[in-house]
Amino acid sequence: MATVVNGVVTGQGAGTTNITYTVAGTGGCGPVSASRSVTVTAPSVAGTISGTPQGICIGGTTTYTISGNSAAGTWGTDNASVATVVSGVVTGQGAGTTNITYTVAGTGGCNAATATRSVTVTANPSAPGARHLWPALLDRFANQPRWHTERWNMVWCRC
Questions:
Q1: Domains in the chain: how many in total?
Q2: Same structural domain, 36 and 96
Q3: With 47 labelled, which of 27, 32, 55, 101 sits at a CA distance of 20 to 30 A?
Q4: How far apart are CA 42 and CA 105, in angstroms?
């Protein structure tokens, strides 16, 4: 569980053990000992974050999972304006790169452990000039019968 060198106790494995310090007796007196129980706590393990893709569009989602963790933890993000995460579901908020984290709290005096995975959020693609396409078509075919397609529906329009 623990070793003692020059009075310094070093944990070697999780568990409880007794540390005893003995002073040799002098002048006809016997030795004197003092004992103390020491509990060594295993460090927290955050595990490994996995999932694909590591790149999403604004408004898009991907699911990350955690494995190999020593206890339940909490999901987090370094920059919520780029991506948020709830129960491993990552949602793109704005263009950029940030880290998604999973943190397991420390116990028994040990520090918390954190696993990290980066995610890159990109702006949604757009067709340049698409907003100006319909007015140009309407001007060209004004007052003429025409077919108009949108989202797989055919509509006859006579303007």
A1: 2
A2: no
A3: 55
A4: 12
Please give the residue range of the domain that contains residue 28: 2-40
Distance CA 114, CA 132 (A): 49
Tokens of 118: 């980066």
Q: Examine the domain organization and report whether 57 and 36 are in the same domain.
A: no
Residue owning tokens 């108009």:
148
Of 68-77, 101-110, 127-136, least confident by mean pLDDT is 127-136
Give the residue among 85, 13, 92, 89 at the shortest CA–CA distance from 58.
92
Helix (H, G, I), strand (E, B) or coil at 106: coil
125 phi and psi angles, rounded to 5 deg:
-65, 150
Q: What is the DSSP letter of 126?
A: -
For the record, the structure tokens of 115 come out as 């696993």
Same domain (yes/no): 110, 64: yes
60, 82: one domain: yes
Do 116 and 67 belong together in one domain? yes
State pLDDT tens for residues 31-69.
999 999 998 888 899 999 999 888 999 999 999 999 999
- Digit-coded pLDDT (tens) for 82-92: 999 999 999 99
Query: Does residue 117 share a domain with residue 69?
Result: yes
CA distance 46 to 74: 10
